[in-house]
């Protein structure tokens, strides 16, 4: 664990290659529990959250080996344990999604209540309701969720909000249920489509992934599959912001146009020139960004994970912008930190009003969560002078080789040793 030291002002230019998607990989690794035989995952990002998920699979007695070069081999033919330990689930909310696959394979699963980044209330009621509706008996006691079933049965599930995690969890669990499960008001995030492609490769029957109605026809057994992780759209969005705030010229390779669309349109609104050809996105800017308003929404709306880096960009815009956070109400933990750098942001409830200032100045700051950390990095790249960002373990959870990638683009950034070790609690 450590700190980042950044000296702002360098114009970023050059090319980076997108890493594998953090959120996509985590859901897929949990889904790998369904398969008998070896699953080979490629382009897996080397980040803290993936390490946590690998630790989780091993704790369940599943074979999980890192081969290097982004290749991870998982063999869940045998699942030796049925309890997911508190120490791992409290670190990362996505690890809770091993509950359904374990239940489907073993008829019983016990998983600690999840922890996660402190970005607002993060209940699991949709997950629990989905599992119950599929026929499991669920008991929540002493901080653990315990689920048991004779057999899971296809059903109709309605989500009160299109939750990405609940859609992934229920879709995965339903793959081994008897009959047809339909998820109504499902999330349509690209990570759902990617997970469906992975599960289909294992032999699952899924229709409608990426729309608000997902239909899963249960099968008796799933097998291992060889699957390449899709690119990380949040990483692409963060580096695009870094290009704009430094008036740079950055190419991001290995992206897919449809998944970057929601934020590319916003980049153009602030005056950036964004060209997309096949799998490369080029982002250029030669002036202060223009202000714009942002409302976060489930996909294909503006992604909540990019609200924070975009706020750093709007902090130096030529005018006033309004951000409305509709997904996670406390995703404003960067506000106090950007204020240290001279940003003028007034936040109340789900809204932040940002009065752009001509320049930010370097300061000592703290990354309170993953995307808040990304916002501070973008702000520090644009700021005059040196900035120090502590608690960067949050950033390392979700961004692969961020320092190396930024340096390759000309940023002045280095790691500093931290004077204290801190336990990570994350999304
Ligand atoms: C995932 C992403 C996270 C992203 C979020 C929204 C992973 C590992 N994380 O998180 O980066 O910011 O989607 O795109 O993929 N909700 C409930 N009850 C539930 C579940 C969710 O009320 O049982 C609410 C949440 O409080 C939140 C909203 O639904 O207000 C959306 O949350 P959800 O989509 O589930 O987020 P995650 O899957 O946890």
What does this 3D model show about the protein?
There is one protein chain. By secondary structure, the chain is of the alpha/beta class. The chain has 2 domains: 3-19 and 231-426, UDP-n-acetylglucosamine1-carboxyvinyl-transferase, Chain (Alpha-beta prism); 22-228, UDP-n-acetylglucosamine1-carboxyvinyl-transferase, Chain. 32% of the residues lie in helices and 26% in strands. The protein has helices spanning 22-31, 48-59, 86-89, 99-106, 125-133, 164-174, 190-201, 233-245, 257-269, 304-314, 335-340, 370-382, 393-398, 402-408, and strands spanning 2-7, 13-17, 35-36, 38-42, 63-68, 71-75, 83-84, 108-112, 137-141, 144-148, 156-158, 180-184, 205-207, 213-217, 222-223, 226-228, 249-253, 273-277, 280-284, 294-295, 320-324, 344-348, 351-355, 364-366, 386-390, 412-417. It has a 4-stranded mixed beta sheet with strand order 24-25-1-26. It has a 4-stranded mixed beta sheet with strand order 2-17-19-18. The chain has a 4-stranded mixed beta sheet with strand order 5-6-4-16, with helices on one face. Strand 5 and strand 6 (71-75) form a beta hairpin. Helix 5 (125-133) runs parallel beside helix 6, helix 6 runs parallel beside helix 7 and helix 8 runs parallel beside helix 9 (257-269). The chain is elongated, with a radius of gyration of 21 Å. Residues 421-427 have low confidence and may be disordered. The structure holds uridine-diphosphate-N-acetylglucosamine. The site of uridine-diphosphate-N-acetylglucosamine has 22 residues, from helix 1, helix 5, helix 6 and helix 10.
